[in-house]
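Subject: two folds for Thursday's group meeting

Dear M.,

Sorry for the delay on this. The cluster queue was jammed most of the week, so I only got both jobs back this morning. I'm pasting them in the order they finished. Each block is the input sequence followed by the predicted structure tokens. Could you check whether the formatting survives your parser before we put anything on slides? The first protein is the one we discussed after the seminar.
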Amino acid sequence: MLTSNDLSPGVAHDCDHFVQFYESDAGLADEVGTFLLRALSTGGSAIAIATAQHLAALTSWLDARRVQQTQRRLGDAVTLLDAQATLDGFMVDGWPDEALFAATVGAVVANAAQAGQPLHAFGEMVAVLCDQGLGEAALRLEQLWNRLGERYRFALFCAYPGSAFPRAEDTQLFRHICHAHQRVLPSVALRDADNQELHLRLALAEQRARSLEDEMARRKTAEQQRDAMLMTSPVASALLLGEDHRFQLANPRYLDMTGRDDLIGRPYLDVFPDERDGPIAAALGQVLTHGLPVVHEEYRTMARDIDGTISMRVHTLHFEPLRASSGRIEGAIVSAVEVTGYVRARETLEKSRADREVLLAELEKANRAKDEFLAMLGHELRNPLAPIVTALELMGLRDSSSTMRERAIIQRHVDHLVRLVDDLLDVSRITRGNVDLDRRLVDLREVVTKAVEMTSGLMGQRRHRLTVAIDPTLTCVGDPMRLAQVVANLLVNAGKYTEAGGQITVSATSIDAANLRIRVCDSGVGIPPDVLPHVFDTFYQGQQTIDRAEGGLGIGLALVKNFMKLHGGHVEAASDGPGCGSQFTIVLPRAPLDLVTGEAAAAVPISGAPPAAMPSGQRDGRQQQHRILLVDDNVDAADALAELLRTYGHLVRTAYDPVAALTEAHVFRPDVAVLDIGLPLMDGYELARQLRADPGSSPCVLVALTGYGQKTDHERSHAAGFDHHFVKPLRPADLLDVISGVPVEGPKL
């Protein structure tokens, strides 16, 4: 049985290569010094290659004991070398170079061994390499020491701190280092212990070794299970280790994704050099540096399909850190989920949306062009109507009974044409949302009366029997002109589709305290069931004969529906079928009670006052002569209106272009100037501004006369300085009312 002295470095054989794993530096100098002094005390020599701290402690120990043993100077028998400096002499790229080792350390040993005396050497370079994380290089250095021991007779003492191998994964390297030595010395604590304590310590060490082996086995099993799971994973997966991201595993789906079968054992950038600055290399670096997962969306590759065609594939890549039991990041697990179908569907949807936006833009452009065309059409249609209406007025003033029938025909068709133009423009305004209602408290009798008046020509022409039954107490809040237009459109529709001499009834009754009803019934041709759902559609018309006897544009009922919606009501159509007549019912909210009976009613203007039979300037019997300037590039319209105004006793001048108008205004100094807007070279807005700014012109009332009648047109004329805005064709009575309100002695501004 070995004693503690038998286990001491001091009794080592002269050619032993042994190792000791020490727990602290406290007893290391005594252990090493005793070993070296044994050779020195017998006339031999010693070599110590250690860290600077350990060299200093060893030198002090030897100096304290050398005098008692020999009178030789320490430097004559002992060679002391710094471990790191010595390593620098033979390490190349982190690995011991055998030739350089022989030329440095080997030369020192050869020189000391040539005397033939005992030689003891202490080496700590292997411990330095382990501390630097170069365990494999330390094992290689132990092998070089053994080769040197085969050539020279010396004893070598290697020392490692026990903390150099703290992890379970270090066990294999620890075993190899132990096997590289002839003996493994226990620690001082074990050598100094009695048998029972020694046995206990050994038993604990064996238990720890078994637990480490068990942990390593469990780790190996877990790694095998992980690898098996990755290999059979339904998504592309790979395992990359180390700073160079070397492929350790890649399942078939990953190989298929990359189109490679030579990945295992190769660094990522060795296989994919073009990816050096790409997203995958960057993600792998982030995982290894920071230990945090990374997701890269929509990684695109080109791959060959089963049929041999090359197509794009898109994957979402997930990078998860791979940690050792110590927590150190060893590598990364990469998984790739194919999202090609989703991306293609999304891109198709995005393209569809983009195409839809283009189509919508084109439709909006076409719609704007349509609206502009309708506005222009209304303007162009109203221009020729103006002189016709004026000419009819003149003919009526001349009281020529011989042309009465002809004038009635012209008047009826002019009224019809004006109504068509107004309806057409109203559809355009409603479509754009540009309709503003002049809301006020409305007497329903006056609305129906106005509608009957508007359609009297059609009713008389076709000899219809019209019955009107209105509850005199009914009121609502709305635009009186638009409501009259709605009822008139229903009457026109009934008149067109009822044979001559047919019966038409318009009635207005109360439904309940909140709602009222206006109903137009006729004995006409009726409505087929398949047509009934479409009668309120814009531009929809039922079956027409080739002569289009009913005429129209198919927009009258559409206007009824839209105007009712703007008023908070609705319209319904009913018919028992062809030949059974039709019934149209309007439902509207009744006026609130406080507007009808309270003080608020007095503040709301009541519509429906009957139009004046003649201009106010003549109703009182007094005739006032005004100076009036007419400016219109339509010569017929200007001349006809001028003749009409002269008939009423006014002094009238005409100009057919803006330049002549400015000159005429400067000389004529009119009380009223009626300006067409659509003039050549200079529009009516600019002409109005110049008339207002000309100090030589007398201030006068400016009246805009135009084919444009939208709200924006009214606002623009007001901004240009106009006092009034009339839409062609002009009702002469409206203009005469304006003129009669202008004092002769001074202009009304």
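Second protein, same layout:
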Amino acid sequence: MSWDCGLRYVFSMSPALHHGGVCVLHDKEDLSRLEMVQRLAKDGCRLLQSHGKQGPERTSEQQSDEAVRVCLRERGHNVLVLQRVSSEQPALAASARGGGGGGDRTENRHRRYTVVLGTPEKILEHLLSDLTLDEDHGTLPGSESDTLLDDFLLTYLVFMSTSDLCQALLGHYVTKRYRGKEDGKETLDRKRKVLHLVFQWMTLCRDFLREDEHVKLFMKTLCRYILDDLYEHPSLERDLRELQKLRQLHRRHTVDECSPHRKSKALFHQLSLKENGLQSRGIQKETKEVLCHVYVTIDSYLSVRVPAGVVAQQLLQAVAERMEIPQEELVLVAVSYSGGRLLVQPQDRLYSDALTAAGRLHVCRKDLNQVVSPFSENSESHQRTAHLLSMNTWDVAVALTNFDWAIFDSVHEQELVYFTFSRHASSHHTVSLELLLQRCNEVQLWVMTEVLLCPTLCKRVQLIKKFIKIAAHCKAQRNLNCFFAIIMGLNAAAVSRLNQTWEKVPGKFKRLFAELETMTDPSHNHKAYRDSFKKMKAPKIPFLPLLLKDITFIHEGNKTFHDNLVNFEKLHMIADTARLIRLCQRDHVGNGDTPKSSPEVRTYIDYLHIIDNQQTLFELSHRLEPRS
């Protein structure tokens, strides 16, 4: 990059940036801690500083780090605003390190600069210049803790496309901007920084980038560039192995990909390559799953977890087994939103590539009509006994938690960013997140359905006691998503109005329920829940609706751009909230020690019978206990 000699650095000592103001810079040494500033100085740019009298009162330590902001102006416009922070500050302790070019590295660790505002290009440039690589291995040990890098990778899609990022990274890798001023070591260091960012990007976001054609071309081009550099920089061989592993390439590159005068050297390195895996964090499952709703009455359905590629025959078989009806007696009918009906053929796929059903699916009896209606409201499904009463409450909680973990473990923190900023345009990127939200809603409706379909008073009392115990067990198993759903189901108006039933509930269960309710208290921004959740060790499943509410408040309450500059402070807050997903998934219980429940309980939980019509639920409630 060719720097304009008219660039100016404006140093502001106030928390807010004042355009056109040049404030006092107390320590000229502060500049040496920014590699970017050093590059500007070498190119002859003018640095502004004060020449006031010296004295003890002039030391920069008397100015708080939060008050020191550095603004880069290019051609009369702000392009980057940085804020100096101390390494002792826990919230920003993992931010990028300043002073990459020289000086005392030990002292440099006490001063760091985090991005406040900037153009996408300048933010990326600062990020690369800020990286400090290990001298021996070329990567940062524990690099996931680098907050600035993580913030950028989680939220870059807000302010730049994947194609733009690919082009920018290739530009930084092959740039000639420092020709004549950059020695071999600096060139190698710059290339390794770009590769380090690429490794982290691909490892973090691999599932979202898997089918992106821009990324495929980018990876191929980058491999070719590295092969060309192997003659001059043989130590890049290990980086090439890692990049090939990420691309899942198990073939040798042709000699034509290298320059002719480097054929023999490159071929030697190609033949010496060995497998060197790069562990991927949180890889999502290859096979997407959906919660399929198969209506068995006008207003109730079975919730069935099936692969996205399920065909009608497989789904019908699963539903028939759950309803204990021979499959030969049933057919599947799709009811469109306009009211039309279509008999689904056995080999028809039920879900499109966007993971949306063709219509509302009903299971019907063959002997009713040629294209039949759903089961009537007087069917046996409404007269069934409460099977839940015969099940162990701990086993039920384990089955619920294992079901939720199977979904939550595949949720990626970037799904929250997609969900917040581009929910409708990128629904295929938020499948796991929406699946878990849907499951939370279904568990709440299931609790209401089970209670309101129980015909006798004594059994309803037993059911409520069981649900209270199941909620307590879910809390003990750190499944807060299911815990909230059960409590909300018991607190729903159609259930809570059953005064005769609740009066029969023993006092100790009422006290336990009241204690559990305090954790769901929304007062003081859900303080009770937040305090209790912080004390829980991972792995744990958070209450997803509240997490999305937090991110939505950050998004709606802060502008994404200020004067055409990316508000990176907002993106840091969003990324910091989204990272809670990663922390909760840590040390997942699925390392061979997952608690098991009985097959009967697992089958029951996998096929929940749910009434989703609120009017029907209230009618059932009033039928059980009419208004006095």
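Two things I noticed about the second structure. The chain is about 45% helix and 10% strand. The chain has a mean pLDDT of 75.

Cheers,
T.
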